[in-house]
Design a protein that fits this description.
Elements lengths: L4 H14 L5 H19 L11 H13 L4 H20 L26 H14 L5 H16 L3 H5 L6 E2 L4 E5 L5 E5 L2 H18 L19 H13 L9 H13 L4 H8 L4 H4 L1 H17 L4
Antiparallel strand pairs: 1-2, 2-3
């Protein structure tokens, strides 16, 4: 039986999910990148070094770079291609790994966008004003944003929360992160009060036979989606000095404000669910930049 590229891609997808433990979104992105690399012309061809070689990889990456994508996106596509060719080689489908010699531009690492405390106060005041008895969505929106900022959760982690994931007696929430890694994260009194009000006055008026045990529901009683939360947060931030930003900026803000307040870097790493401390260290740079700006604005000899 001929071993074709489309069959290889299907098995590679399963490998990323089961053996690597990648999240569904990461698997989807990698498979999309490899599909773009292969193209429909060779998808049904037999896997061979004459078809998938270094020249082909370089041509594809050049076309990608000419399309105007950000360096970070090009770097991710390159990583996906190298991962695929390495897997083909390790499983004996290719005698050599052409991806070993593929080079891509280093992803520029810009500082994450952080929402100021003043802007956050404005946002929570606006959300609190909407949380009234005749507006169950208002209670939900306030609870969702409070929990995003309190825990530094990813928006995908938030929308997948069930009722049983919240421990109200200890103010803890169970989050399922990348690679199905579970962590318990604390939240404060404002988030607890917002959640209590949502459960008492909001969720009960949204729930129906399709709701199941999902914590956050949309107007149709189904689990709320990532896009809806993104649109909510983006709309709230649009009118502030933060400008265009999404829910991830609340995660950045939680981490940065914790470090500003003297939290330990490893504690913040655990809170965010980062596998590497190096990923968390970007927030120390944010804190340093904020300190530098404050120094320039406040010190008479700056």
């Amino acid at each position: 039986m001929t071993y074709t590229f489309d069959r290889a891609l299907s098995e590679y997808s399963s490998h990323l999910s089961s053996a690597k433990g990648f999240s569904a979104n990461t698997v989807k992105a990698y498979v999309s990148d490899v599909t773009d690399l292969l193209g429909p012309e060779i998808m049904h061809d037999e896997v061979s070094a004459s078809t998938l070689n270094l020249e082909m990889l370089r041509d594809w990456l050049w076309r990608v770079s000419e399309s105007g994508l950000a360096k970070s996106s090009i770097a991710r596509k390159s990583a996906a291609a190298r991962s695929f060719t390495a897997w083909l080689n390790s499983t004996g489908r290719l005698d050599e790994d052409p991806g070993l010699r593929l080079r891509s531009p280093k992803a520029g690492r810009s500082l994450p966008k952080v929402v100021s405390r003043e802007n956050l106060n404005q946002i929570f005041e606006a959300l609190s004003a909407r949380a009234v008895l005749d507006n169950p969505n208002g209670y939900r929106d306030l609870a969702a944003v409070e929990l995003l900022y309190a825990t530094g959760a990813r928006v995908s982690e938030l929308v997948n929360l069930d009722l049983t994931d919240v421990d109200y007696t200890r103010n803890l929430v169970r989050l399922m992160g990348k690679g199905s890694k579970e962590r318990m994260v604390p939240f404060g009194q404002p988030a607890k009060e917002a959640l209590d009000d949502y459960i008492r006055h909001g969720r009960g008026r949204l729930v129906n036979e399709d709701s199941g045990t999902a914590l956050f529901l949309n107007s149709r009683g189904k689990k709320i989606g990532v896009r809806q939360v993104y649109a909510l947060v983006a709309g709230l931030l649009e009118g502030t000095s933060t400008g265009v930003a999404g829910p991830h900026s609340l995660r950045h803000s939680a981490a940065t404000h914790l470090l500003d307040g003297g939290a330990d870097l490893r504690a913040v790493q655990e809170l965010l669910g980062h596998a590497s401390l190096g990923t968390t260290q970007i927030y120390t740079h944010v804190s340093i930049e904020r300190l530098r700006d404050g120094y320039k604005n406040a010190h008479p000899r700056a």
